[in-house]
Amino acid sequence: MILTFFDQFSSPYLLGIPLILLSMLLPTLLLPTPSNRWITNRLSTLQLWAINMITKQLMAPLNKPGHKWSIILTSLMMLLLTINLLGLLPYTFTPTTQLSMNMALAFPLWLATLLTGLRNQPTTSLGHLLPEGTPTPLIPALIMIETISLLIRPLALGVRLTANLTAGHLLIQLISTATIALLPIMPTVSAITAMVLLLLTILEVAVAMIQAYVFVLLLSLYLQENI
Fold this sequence. Notes:
Elements: E1 13-14, E2 17-18, H1 20-30, H2 42-59, H3 70-86, H4 99-120, H5 122-127, H6 139-151, H7 153-182, H8 187-225
Antiparallel strand pairs: 1-2
Transmembrane segments: 12-31, 69-89, 101-118, 138-156, 168-186, 192-223
Subcellular location: Mitochondrion inner membrane
Catalytic activity: H(+)(in) = H(+)(out)
């Protein structure tokens, strides 16, 4: 059987059962559960500090009614962060490289922010479709453009996350394959390629964290427009 570079993005199966749900639930099991003890271990303290900092960053652009979404947005941020980082380990599968999963996360949350705005302040939400001071002949065209840009938001969220993670995984696999192939022929070039691979891996760790933050931050900004 001939394998390709894109086989790493196919969902693994065991006895005909897809394991994508297991790979999505495993990161949540790795997080320590809080307890009522005053003295906790270092991992729980670090987790609490990270969640507190992430929540502050996400709630900063929102007014008080938007703080009801803090649990949803923070939980989504932690889920994406752990999945993206664990997907960089060898012999693992990254569910966030699947556009279907990212769209399943982006579309319902985007729709919830939109329906929240239409329910609470329909005039203001619909007013975003037409900028103030628009010349009369341009009104129909601008309404169509703003409507398309509004409807394309969940697609942009899903495609951005998928494309960035997929490109990073492909680059790592290409450079690692070149490193192994050049080792018996040109050891010096192989060592240089290995250094490039190390730097790229560090970069991908940063990309995995940044993309999770950007995904949730854009959702919070969409929410701010509608509350």
